[in-house]
């Protein structure tokens, strides 16, 4: 049903939230979602560093050793969809808690896998938890952050996530090069995510989700708490709210809400954006250590290269938070992807130690600059009643590209013989450029209330007024 715009309506409550110029819900919320992101992203790439050791332990071929990566990504797709449906039906907080439990159990069980078959099974379960966590948190942060700072705080949350990527080479260097059981230790570190459950039950539910489910009193209590925190921090009263158009909340199964205009077009566009992005991104994140080892670098050397380039991850996340709301997001993303693609091409063309470090560093900065903004843009494109499901059906199912990436990369590497290294990286660059070409057709949502975005077609606003 549709809420009116009178006193206590959903529209009034959202207008009160979106007038707040800072993050209004306290540091505990940011810490919980930040740690969830950190461990989820750590778990995405830890397997790629562990693969050479796993292959040796279980006596695997190169092709067979890619199966855990593919299994994890297929689990990501299923977990993202199932848990996002739960998020849209039962709440964002419930979904964050269930996702954390899922990938904690998966990581712990992977640690103690003593057959390759069970390792694949538990990496699938871990992947389900990772996909569930990323979709739930992306939806949650997008709904909790007021419109003027949504990009900034999505970027800040992702400082944690890409710090998770950055620490993987450090952990790998400490464990894999010194202990025969080091690959098991890599997975055990991921299981530490379960500690966040101590605080996860204390975070507030999304007021947008509460409004969509006709729980206005609870939504108002959350927003009042945010208003009080913001006024205390700012030392002054908040500006008067500007009443916005209300969003229509139809009580349908979340997926069905996406298969009608304008959401069907947005879903198709973002689905292909994410497919091509993951065809590139997971080829880089999942196969770079293996390609460098096959190129002749030792495992320690290739890990050290990627450790140094990984310093770019937190820098990129800081830039994403800084610029997240200054320019229209879809164009900021496009620029970041082009820089990322050029760095991949340089990596393949000039594979010396110095070039690998320099190009890899620039690549890492660019990757982590645009990824948080792409998560924000994806969540902004869908209605509250199906926002988490929309994220799962784009980013989540888009991981089909991620699942295929190691297979395509290894096939290209093998097919081109002595130029296989170059062609593998040119493949990564090309798929990223295709993604960039699609982006201008997306919605322009920067600094706009989510409710306003749903009444607008895609447009071409390039710079956002301050």
Automatic annotation (TrEMBL):
<dbReference type="InterPro" id="IPR036259">
    <property type="entry name" value="MFS_trans_sf"/>
</dbReference>
<dbReference type="Pfam" id="PF00083">
    <property type="entry name" value="Sugar_tr"/>
</dbReference>
<feature type="domain" description="Major facilitator superfamily (MFS) profile">
    <location>
        <begin position="29"/>
        <end position="447"/>
    </location>
</feature>
<feature type="transmembrane region" description="Helical">
    <location>
        <begin position="422"/>
        <end position="445"/>
    </location>
</feature>
<protein>
    <submittedName>
        <fullName>MFS transporter</fullName>
    </submittedName>
</protein>
<dbReference type="InterPro" id="IPR020846">
    <property type="entry name" value="MFS_dom"/>
</dbReference>
<feature type="transmembrane region" description="Helical">
    <location>
        <begin position="153"/>
        <end position="175"/>
    </location>
</feature>
<feature type="transmembrane region" description="Helical">
    <location>
        <begin position="54"/>
        <end position="82"/>
    </location>
</feature>
<dbReference type="GO" id="GO:0046943">
    <property type="term" value="F:carboxylic acid transmembrane transporter activity"/>
</dbReference>
<feature type="transmembrane region" description="Helical">
    <location>
        <begin position="356"/>
        <end position="377"/>
    </location>
</feature>
<dbReference type="GO" id="GO:0005886">
    <property type="term" value="C:plasma membrane"/>
</dbReference>
<keyword id="KW-0813">Transport</keyword>
<feature type="transmembrane region" description="Helical">
    <location>
        <begin position="181"/>
        <end position="201"/>
    </location>
</feature>
<feature type="transmembrane region" description="Helical">
    <location>
        <begin position="267"/>
        <end position="285"/>
    </location>
</feature>
<feature type="transmembrane region" description="Helical">
    <location>
        <begin position="120"/>
        <end position="141"/>
    </location>
</feature>
<feature type="transmembrane region" description="Helical">
    <location>
        <begin position="397"/>
        <end position="416"/>
    </location>
</feature>
<dbReference type="InterPro" id="IPR005828">
    <property type="entry name" value="MFS_sugar_transport-like"/>
</dbReference>
<feature type="transmembrane region" description="Helical">
    <location>
        <begin position="297"/>
        <end position="319"/>
    </location>
</feature>
<keyword id="KW-0812">Transmembrane</keyword>
<dbReference type="InterPro" id="IPR005829">
    <property type="entry name" value="Sugar_transporter_CS"/>
</dbReference>
<feature type="transmembrane region" description="Helical">
    <location>
        <begin position="94"/>
        <end position="114"/>
    </location>
</feature>
<feature type="transmembrane region" description="Helical">
    <location>
        <begin position="331"/>
        <end position="350"/>
    </location>
</feature>
<keyword id="KW-0472">Membrane</keyword>
<feature type="transmembrane region" description="Helical">
    <location>
        <begin position="20"/>
        <end position="42"/>
    </location>
</feature>
<keyword id="KW-1133">Transmembrane helix</keyword>
């Amino acid at each position: 049903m549709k809420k009116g715009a009178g006193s206590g309506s959903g529209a009034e409550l959202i207008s009160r939230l979106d007038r707040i110029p800072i993050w209004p819900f306290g540091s505990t919320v940011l810490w919980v979602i930040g740690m969830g992101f950190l461990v989820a992203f750590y778990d995405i790439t830890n397997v790629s560093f562990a693969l050479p050791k796993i292959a040796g332990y279980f006596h695997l071929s190169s092709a067979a050793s890619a199966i855990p990566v593919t299994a994890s990504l297929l689990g990501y797709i299923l977990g993202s969809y199932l848990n996002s449906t739960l998020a849209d039906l039962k709440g964002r907080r419930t979904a964050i808690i269930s996702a954390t439990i899922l990938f904690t159990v998966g990581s712990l069980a992977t640690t103690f896998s003593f057959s390759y078959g069970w390792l694949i099974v538990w990496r699938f379960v871990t992947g389900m938890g990772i996909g569930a966590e990323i979709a739930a948190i992306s939806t949650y942060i997008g709904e909790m952050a007021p419109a003027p700072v949504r990009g900034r705080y999505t970027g800040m949350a992702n400082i944690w996530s890409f710090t998770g990527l950055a620490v993987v080479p450090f952990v790998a260097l400490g464990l894999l090069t010194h202990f025969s059981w080091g690959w098991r230790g890599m997975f055990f570190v991921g299981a530490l995510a379960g500690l966040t459950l101590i605080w996860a039950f204390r975070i507030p539910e999304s007021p947008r989700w509460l409004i969509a489910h006709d729980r206005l009193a609870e939504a108002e209590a959350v927003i009042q708490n945010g208003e009080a925190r913001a006024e205390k921090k700012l030392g002054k009263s908040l500006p008067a709210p500007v009443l916005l158009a209300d969003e229509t909340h139809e009580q349908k199964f979340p997926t069905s809400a996406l298969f009608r205009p304008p959401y069907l077009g947005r879903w198709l566009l973002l689905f292909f954006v994410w497919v091509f992005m993951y065809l590139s991104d997971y080829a880089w994140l999942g196969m770079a250590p293996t390609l460098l080892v096959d190129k002749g670098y030792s495992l320690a050397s290739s890990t050290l290269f990627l450790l140094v380039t990984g310093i770019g991850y937190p820098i990129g996340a800081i830039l994403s938070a800084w610029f997240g709301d200054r320019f229209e997001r879809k164009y900021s993303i496009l620029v970041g992807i082009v820089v990322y693609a050029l760095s991949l091409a340089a990596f393949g063309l000039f594979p010396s130690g110095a070039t690998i470090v320099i190009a890899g560093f620039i690549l890492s900065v660019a990757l982590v600059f645009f990824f948080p903004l792409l998560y924000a843009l994806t969540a902004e494109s869908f209605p509250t009643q199906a926002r988490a499901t929309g994220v799962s059906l784009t980013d989540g199912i888009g991981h089909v590209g991620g699942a295929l990436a190691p297979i395509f990369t290894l096939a290209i590497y093998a097919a081109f013989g002595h130029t296989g290294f170059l062609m593998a990286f040119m493949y990564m660059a090309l798929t990223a450029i295709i993604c960039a070409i699609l982006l201008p057709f997306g919605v322009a949502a920067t600094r706009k209330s989510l409710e306003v975005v749903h009444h607008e077609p895609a447009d071409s606003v390039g710079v956002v007024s301050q």
